[in-house]
Design brief:
alpha+beta; four-stranded mixed sheet; 11 helices; globular
Length: 179
């Protein structure tokens, strides 16, 4: 029979392995919030749609209501921004990176634990690029690496941000250029 300390240690280690496993902590849903209203889309639906399947459920209705062509939405979800893993890690821990993440965390944050938004975004981005074969950041890969089951998207804030930003590629190019 195992000593009492070993019997106590086994469940603790098992729980730690489950907690550390990325698959158990990845985002399952994206919750779109507009004022007091919210709807969610399953991340697996977004993955399936980005890989060529037809949209279903709320995703289909949302694309229809907004008159966004399927191919345009699919290209946005499939967009890959080339950013080396080490560069991304360094950038996200600079003062400028912290400020950028702080701003983004007002639009994208964990459903329960809004104050952990910066850390969750940083973790999701770094894990996403680390798992990528080509060192590229992709929206669906990011969601699958986001360390919370639900990612809330504040739609009005996101739309305002997008209206002010010409291109994510421009931001990436800015960070790549030497000072």
């Amino acid at each position: 029979m195992a000593p009492p300390s070993a019997r106590l240690l086994a469940p603790l280690l098992g729980g730690l392995i489950i907690w550390i496993s990325p698959a158990t902590r990845a985002a399952e849903r994206v919750v779109l919030v507009v004022g007091p209203f919210n709807r969610s889309v399953e991340v697996k639906e977004l993955r399936s749609f980005s890989e060529g399947s037809e949209p279903r459920g709320f995703l289909k209705r949302a694309l229809s209501l907004t008159n966004i062509p399927h191919e345009k939405a699919r290209s946005v979800l499939g967009k890959r921004v080339d950013i080396p893993f080490t560069l991304l890690g360094r950038l996200l821990y600079t003062d400028l990176g912290e400020a950028f993440l702080g701003r983004i965390a007002t639009m994208f944050y964990p459903r329960h634990g809004r104050s952990a938004g910066v850390q969750a975004l940083r973790s999701g981005a770094i894990l996403s690029v680390a798992r990528s074969d080509a060192g590229k950041l992709n929206p669906v890969d990011f969601l699958e690496s986001y360390p919370n089951k639900e990612l809330v998207v504040d739609v009005p804030r996101l739309l305002y941000f997008l209206s002010r930003l010409n291109s994510i590629q421009e931001v990436a190019e800015f960070f790549r250029e030497p000072f």
